[in-house]
Design a protein that fits this description.
Its EC number is 2.4.2.14. It comes from candidate division WOR-3 bacterium. The protein has two domains: 242 residues, 4-Layer Sandwich (Glutamine Phosphoribosylpyrophosphate, subunit 1, domain 1), CATH 3.60.20; 190 residues, Rossmann fold (3-Layer(aba) Sandwich), CATH 3.40.50. It is α+β, with helices and mostly antiparallel strands. 33% of the residues lie in helices and 24% in strands. The longest helix is centred in the middle third of the chain and has 19 residues. Helix 4 packs across helix 5 and helix 5 packs across helix 6. The chain is built from 16 helices and 22 strands. Strand 12 and strand 13 form a beta hairpin.
Amino acid sequence: MCGVVGIYGRHDAVEAIYTSLLAIQHRGQDSAGIATLEEGFHLKKGNGLVLNVFNAKNMARLKGSLGIGHVRYPTIGSLGTEDAQPFIVNTPFGIALAHNGNLVNFFELREKLIKRYFRYLNSNCDAEVILNLFARELSQEPLGELTPGSIFNALDRIYDEMIGSYSVVAIIARVGMLAFRDPHGIKPLVLGRRDSSFAIASESVVFDHLGYEFIGDVEPGEAVFINLNGELVRKKIRVAAPAPCIFEYVYFARPDSIIDGIGVYEARLRLGRELAGAVRKAGIEPDVVFPVPDTARAAVTTLAEELGIKHREGLIKNRYIGRTFIMPTQKKRKVSIRFKLNPIRSEIEGKKVLVVDDSIVRGNTASEIIQLIRDAGASAVYYASYSPPLRYPCLYGIDMQTRGEFVARGKTVEEVERIIGADRLIYQSIEGLIRGVGMGRNFCTGCFTGEYPTPIPPRMAEQIEAQRLKVKEEV
């Protein structure tokens, strides 16, 4: 999972991009990058947080009124700087590109580009593959005066080749800015405007920070092009059943964002109400309920209202520790949990405590939290997840790509309950999840159900898993 932003028509686009990347830093902590266009491209990218990668000196040379930015945590590719985005090619015209998502057939496409089209690829990042596919097809169009139709024709052909999720922002030098989204809209992409300036981003919260009007989503399968005169052209490249990633609403997106017309905070409130039914059915009677900060706060509010019990803050978060879920190794996750969370003993001691989390992936976070609460004197510790058991790999860009990572895979709820050390474990139902988030909408629920919106050739899934295991071993 990554975050992208594109800014068109600001005198110093880099300032707006930098602000935007800070707003979506939660989407990736491993690397960051910005490319701007003046007479030529200016690029700065590197490993680390936005605050670490950029400084006054390197930002001063990122001049231009068009620019794109990216924050990353690796899914395909490695942890090296060579896989940081954006990427640039110098022909045709010169194109800079960044993307959020994951190409399921990345390895096949990369080999095809190298062996059949003799393109030199310097990374193991699928954004570079998308860039070279697009550049190859764009070079087949009449290049004297590139039109939106020509750009959309080139996109139409690469859509035929790519399997997976992709939300892309790109700059075509001397032509304009382009954004496009995969046919199922698995990864989010939104559009905003302020006077004659446009912004494209992974989440709408970017527009709140920039003072832009939220126009709406780049639709699944849609491309958006803005030429150098500020004219906006939109075209549906592919029509398919929308299937946005439901895990965005569960965990990944900021609660103050709106994605595909659904407010993330409101979705989490509904998920709390749905979870209350599962808790009631379990027959437990907690004295107090509190969230694993910060994602579960909204759900706890409505769950407590439904059940008529107190909700408190029982765990205090150290805000200088990153998101443990997206840390690249289990060792780093486990070490950081004790630094990240500290219990408030007065709210715990002698009480039956219900802890609400957004999800349980590997189980290490849940087991550490349960032990923290027991050590603080709880008489009983119940653990509830407002999403169902995670059992299947995500092949679209969330770091859950290996089957062995899921504590719930091949196990009953009771078995997981014993592993994490809870007195009771309660999961949301898949029906409650879908009702809570989308009120009848369709989503990608592959990580919960094993049913994916795109073809998943077994060989390609195995390649992704093997590559990801290799990266984890190298860290």
